[in-house]
Amino acid sequence: MNILLTSAGRRTYMVDYFKKALNGSGKVFASNSILTHTLLQADEYVLTPNIYDEQYISFLVEYCKQKDINAIISLFDIDLPVLSKNRAVLEKENIQLVVSNHEATLICNDKWATYEFLLSIGISQTPSFITIQDAKEAISKGDISYPLYLKPRWGMGSIGIYKVENDEELDILYKKLHREIFNTYLKYESAADVDKSIIIQQAIKGQEYGIEILNDLNSQYVTTFAKKKIAMRSGETDIAQTVDASEFESIAKNISANLKHMALLDVDCFKTDDGKIFVLEMNCRFGGQYPFSHVAGVNVPQQIVNWLSGKATDWNLLRIQTGVSACKEILPTITSK
Fold first, then answer.
1. 3-state SS, one letter per residue, for the chain
2. In terms of pTM, does the model score above 0.90?
3. Does the pLDDT of residue 51 top 90, yes or no?
4. In Å, how far from its chain's centre is CA 181?
5. Is a pLDDT exceeding 60 seen at residue 330?
6. Most buried of 1, 13, 132, 284 (most Cβ within 10 A)?
7. What is the distance between the alpha carbons of residues 249 and 214, in angstroms, rounded to a whole number?
């Protein structure tokens, strides 16, 4: 079996995990639009057209046929809707796409759609607004108060996130963020609704957690992993400790049943002092918190390889040891001497 990890970026650990999972029975290929250290760690790599290039899918199809690649797994949010929309094209060539359904990818990539989806299934949400006028009206009525967070509606990590403490900062940073969005790759999805490309959310006081909801390749719920986030870097979990996931399971099963995602769903949560759990964001892919599950005994890449091979769920691969603390190591990204 040969697997292609698209938009691999800097996730070298994912290449390593899948190489170990295949254990010589196949190759791990990696692709990206620019050369990174991660690509060089794969068995083979290729530079692709930009995700939004009209030749992107046909390029992947031809490359997979040339290299006898059986499955594609994407590691980048922006890639997911493009791939899922072309599932039939890929599967016609016997390339299995380990990516969630198109609707799920759109919900997760759009923070406002995420907010509305979670509300619709009864999961607590912090007050959120899609226009600055609505946010100001809520402030004037006393429905919300500072601090607030401004975030790109379509975005990931810590790109363009601002905490605002007063009316003046709200006006200035809102305009600044809008300019930033349309000077980065975020402009592509944000172009769908230019005047509603920023989401404004009430800040929450509490402990941040990350949970991962695992579905099988038929989008059926399997299990949940949970971590207490201790430190963040560039919007990703940097230090975390694995914890018992039982208090998050009802939320996880609710999301799984309604979103019907495939494989891992990366979810950010806050738990307030009174025990209430708020879900803020979801990513339909292996997220930055996955290495903490892996070091605590979980092996989702191996389970995915097993599922792709027609094998059943192996619970020995999915038992997490709680109380394990870990810190990510940032390695140099030099690609040549």
1. CCEEEECCCCCHHHHHHHHHHHCCCCCEEEEECCCCHHHHHCCEEEECCCCCCCCHHHHHHHHHHHHCCCEEEECCCCHHHHHHHCHHHHHHCCCEECCCCHHHHHHHHEHHHHHHHHHHCCCCCCCEECCHHHHHHHHHHCCCCCCEEEEECECCCCCCCEEECCHHHHHHHHHHHHHHHCCCCCHHHHHHHHHHCEEEEECCCCEEEEEEEEECCCCCEEEEEEEEEEEEECCEEEEEEEECCHHHHHHHHHHHHHHCCCCEEEEEEEECCCCCEEEEEEECCCCCCHHHHHHCCCCHHHHHHHHHCCCCCCHHHCCCCCCCEEECCCCCCCCCC
2. yes
3. yes
4. 19
5. no
6. 284
7. 11
Torsion 131-133-134-136 (CA) sign: positive
- In the structure, what pLDDT confidence band is assigned to residue 230 with cuts at 50, 70 and 90? confident
Name the nearest CA neighbour of 115 among 201, 48, 222, 231: 201
Average pLDDT over residues 46-58: 96
Question: What is the Cα–Cα distance from 180 to 152, expressed in whole angstroms?
Answer: 9
Is residue 337 pLDDT above 50, yes or no?
Answer: no
Average pLDDT in the 24-40 region? 96
User: pLDDT digit string (tens) for 90-138?
Assistant: 999 999 999 999 999 999 999 999 999 999 999 999 999 999 999 999 9
Tokens of 162: 């601002």
- Rounded CA-CA distance 138/303 in Å is 47
**Mean pLDDT of all residues in 58-77:** 97
Sign of the torsion formed by the C-alpha atoms of 17, 21, 27 and 33: negative
Backbone angles phi, psi at 59, to 5 degrees: -65, -45
Question: Which residue, 268, 320, 255, is CA-closest to 294?
Answer: 320
pLDDT digit string (tens) for 157-182? 656 789 999 999 999 999 999 888 88
